[in-house]
Amino acid sequence: MLSHFLQRHGIAATSISLIREQSEAVQPPRALWVPFPLGRPLGVADDPEFQTDVLRSALGLLETATEPTIADYPHDAPDGGGDGVWACAIELPTPEVSELEASLRAEIDLLMPRYLEARRRRGRSTFGMSGATLEQMDQLVSYAVAVAEGCGFDHIPASATGPDWTHPTPMLVRFVVEDLRAFYQESVTSDTDSGPPSQHDMHTWIFRETALGRLIKRIAQMITDNDDPRLLFIRGLLIPEGFWEGGPTFGGPPPGEDPREFLIRSRRYLQGVGA
Length: 275
Hints:
Elements: H1 2-8, E1 16-17, H2 20-26, E2 30-33, H3 48-64, E3 69-72, H4 99-122, H5 137-148, H6 172-188, H7 199-209, H8 211-225, H9 232-238, H10 259-270
Parallel strand pairs: 1-2, 2-3
């Protein structure tokens, strides 16, 4: 949604919510829920004092909310004098956004200012190996979430069209995850007052404390559950050894198959040049 886009580009965003369930699903950076009918986000017409109070309450969240927040406006709208307050007769569907996707996007919103500062100071970034630009973070996230939620490994979903992806499927999955991991790592190492974390500390933080870690492990589980053993090579590139509960992250050839032939066959498939 627009507020996520603005927040990622360093512009603090707030909003007014008429449907709490929808706001809870998308987790905007800040939202003021108002108990008014649809179509009346500021209450009734011709009451500028009340409408100004609603706006001030929404704008006040810019100063008080430092993490995704949905605040309740404490007042009902004044009686409109029986003027027939309009309400939409069509029940619009709530966007289907999973908890994992909402959590991941919220983390990215919070990390974006730190990432931009780190990139400005260093003059470079390793983000972009997949072909997506920072402005295409929405599509990058959509692709990763779609894979984690079962869309498969051999096609790009419609929600992820736009970037000039530089790798074929299914190997593209690896580089999409690498871009997200680079974004996180560069964001949290931007603080010049503390030393850089060790590689083990960074892996521990990502895989045990973040939505990104849950996303990566969900993709790894999709690979594990897949019937094609050639995908196990990607799992080994996504999960460091010691952070996968199922044992070693790289998988071997099926019983009876020559390891060298299996490796060649796997590489061709992952690079999109053979079935």
